Amino acid sequence: MATPASDVSGVAALAEPLRRDLFDFVVAARTAVSRDQAAEGLQIPTHTAKFHLDRLVEEGLLEVEFRRLTGRTGPGSGRPAKLYRRTDREITVSLPERHYDLLGRILAKAVAEATATGEDVASIVSRVARAEGAAWGASLDDLPSTAELERLAAALDAGGYEPWIEDETLFVQNCPFHRVAQEQTELVCGLNLEFVTGVAAATGCAGLATRLDPGEDRCCVSAAQLDPGEA
User: Fold this and answer.
1) 200 near 129, Cβ under 8 Å?
2) Other CB atoms within 10 Å distance of the CB of residue 221
3) Exposure string for 71-96, b = 16+ CB within 10 A, e = fewer
4) Is 211 helix (H, G, I), strand (E, B) or coil?
5) Sheet of 221-225, strand order
6) Structural contact between residues 195 and 130, judged by C-beta atoms closer than 8 angstroms
């Protein structure tokens, strides 16, 4: 769910104009191209094309294959050429961090299940969102084995929620679904609460109560320690 540092690095690699031109050339070719083809297409030295193409490979934006361009095989057919093509990797960087792909996945799963079963889609959205939160929370490593509020804060921080703790309550500044939440507040805030609840359960924070608690300049979800009688 979090934006990896490698995504930022990959986008930054395209800030160099010639490197961006080479990337665009490879994409437009719709097939793997050699460094000689790229150099000829951009009218630059071959060694310059090779340097920037290999940098794009290092950043995960291009991948390499080796193939003989002559179509011949056997002795005398020559060495396979190193060819470059775009990878299937998707790179998304947003500040503040947003996760509209996660929102889309939750809603798509819920609609598909509602279509198949006839169940009310809203109830399915809640269930799917909590399951997604639990799955994501279970995937996190190296969370602090401290108080539950601190542990949930660390988990949500990894997801871009920008949490803080004040007066023994956890608040979050950033909503990963902000733009859609402005238009569909009840639906999105409800599934956001379920997602965070799933994260809390998966990270061993059973003693916390999550709730809808909207406020000015912060997300709609908060969490606090349950009273001893409620735990």
Assistant:
1) no
2) 24
3) eeeeeeeeeebbbbbeeeeebeeeee
4) strand
5) 163-166, 169-172, 221-225, 208-212
6) yes
The whole-angstrom distance between residue 189's C-alpha and the CA centroid of its chain comes to 20
What does the radius of gyration of the chain's CA atoms come to, in whole angstroms?
24
In this model, does residue 76 exceed pLDDT 60?
no
Could you tell me the pTM of the whole model?
Answer: 0.76
Q: What is the pLDDT of residues 140-170, one digit of tens each?
A: 988 888 899 999 999 999 999 999 999 999 9
Q: Which two tokens stand for residue 96?
A: 């503040």
Is residue 156 within 8 A of residue 172, CB to CB? The reply is yes
- Sheet containing 33-34: give its strands across: 33-34, 81-86, 62-67
Structure tokens that stand for 147 in this block: 């108080």
Q: How many CB atoms lie within 10 A of CB 30?
A: 9
Q: Which two tokens stand for residue 90?
A: 């998707």
